Amino acid sequence: MPAALAGGGWPQPKGHGYFKLSQWWVISDQHYTDTGLKDPNITSGIFNTSLYAEYGLTNKLTGVVYFPFFSRALINNVRSATTQELITPGDAINSLGDTDISLKYGIFAKNQLSVSLTGTLGVPLGIQGGIANNLQTGDGEWNQMLQVDAGISFPIGKINAYANAYGAFNNRTNGFSDEVRYGIEAGAPFLKDKLYVIMRLYGITSLKNGTTAGMVNSTSIFANNSEHLTFSPELNYFVNKNWGLSANAAIALRGRIIFSAPAYSAGVFFRLTPNS
After folding, report:
1. Stated pTM of the model
2. Where are the alpha helices (DSSP H) in 74-174?
3. pLDDT above 80 for 4
4. What is the CA radius of gyration of the chain?
5. How far apart are CA 71 and CA 45, in angstroms?
6. Taking the CB of residue 62, how many other CB atoms lie within 10 A of it?
7. Which of 134, 147, 200, 272 lies at a CB distance of 3.0 to 4.6 Å from 17, suitable for a disulfide?
8. Strands, E, within 194-262: which ranges?
9. What contacts 32, CB < 8 A, 6 or more positions away?
10. Confidence (pLDDT) at 214
11. 80: buried, middle or exposed (CB in 10 Å: 19+, 13-18, 0-12)?
12. Residue 267 and residue 198: Cα distance in Å, rounded?
């Protein structure tokens, strides 16, 4: 791969790292129901300001942290369509967001193929609140996920492209259903390796084995039994050898019990290499 970027089947080499400060958000006035149809809702949204970090502890073992240090969930005012009179006031909550702590281990690497195994612990730092107690910055449950990635790099003419596929099982607690997660992506550099273009397709399937419905609010990204298949293009531009800018959009092609609106992110990243 992309030694230039993070993620996939490639662990970071010892002493190397990738760090990104980013803003992610989604705002929606409609959602997917539990039958996969779309219904309108009061305009709602969530904003996460986060730090993502990968650091090579050894050549095979990488530590990974995703930490939303500021998360804001909100719902807009409801006004009369004819008089604009305020019917229901909006609401918002602010807190830390649910955090992921992971270890990635490289289990196979030969030629251009690399396979890794990642264990992730989800830490419920987010909250549920608001006037009607219907806003969330987290799901309130500890989860454990095991993920296998397989990545391969290959030339296309003079371009060194890559592709990656993954599958994961997410064990959830507190009455939430377990999940199967999956995805594929491909990327390639352009403009003398300054611009990386990445295309992703990924999804979540609920096993619907929870003991309770949990949070069934379709206007929350933390609802139980939520499912989706999402297409996500991303651009990463290197300003210099180590620093760069990233932008991403995620569009749900289908879903159940989840927002029906694109999510966006923008950030700045730093690639740590020896002597940098």
Report:
1. 0.93
2. none
3. no
4. 20
5. 11
6. 26
7. 272
8. 195-206, 227-238, 243-256, 258-259
9. 38, 218, 228, 252, 254, 255, 256, 257, 258, 259, 260
10. 52
11. exposed
12. 15
Contact (CB, 8 A) for 186 and 205: no
User: Residues with Cβ < 8 Å from 167, sequence gap 6 or more?
Assistant: 147, 148, 180, 181, 182
CA pair distance 273, 86, nearest whole angstrom: 55
Q: The tokens of 263 are what?
A: 């999510």
What are the pLDDT digits (tens) for 11-39?
999 999 999 999 999 999 999 999 999 99
The residues, any chain, with a CB within 8 Å of residue 161's CB and separated by 6 or more, are 153, 154, 155, 186, 187, 188
Alpha-carbon distance of 63 to 103, in angstroms, equals 5
Residue carrying structure tokens 């129901």: 33
| Tokens at 192, concatenated | 């003398």
Q: What is the number of residues in the chain? A: 276
- Cβ atoms of 74 and 90 closer than 8 Å: yes
Judge contact between 117 and 109, C-beta under 8 A: no
Structure tokens at 274: 């020896």
Question: CA–CA separation, 106 vs 199, rounded Å?
Answer: 23
Can you tell me whether residue 4 is helix, strand or coil? Answer: helix
Residue 112: partners with Cβ closer than 8 Å, 6 or more residues away: 152, 153, 154
Stated as kind and residue range, the H or E segment containing 43 is strand 38-56
Q: Which of 32-41, 177-186, 221-230 has the highest mean pLDDT?
A: 177-186
Q: Phi then psi for 4, rounded to 5 degrees?
A: -75, -25
pLDDT value at 129 more than 80: yes
Count Cβ atoms within 10 A of the Cβ of residue 271 and give its class: 0-12 exposed, 13-18 middle, 19 or more buried: buried
Give the bridge partners for 203, in sequence order. 182, 229
Q: Which residue would you say has higher pLDDT here, 109 or 79?
A: 109
Contact residues for 169 (Cβ-Cβ < 8 A; gap 6+): 145, 146, 178, 179, 180, 181
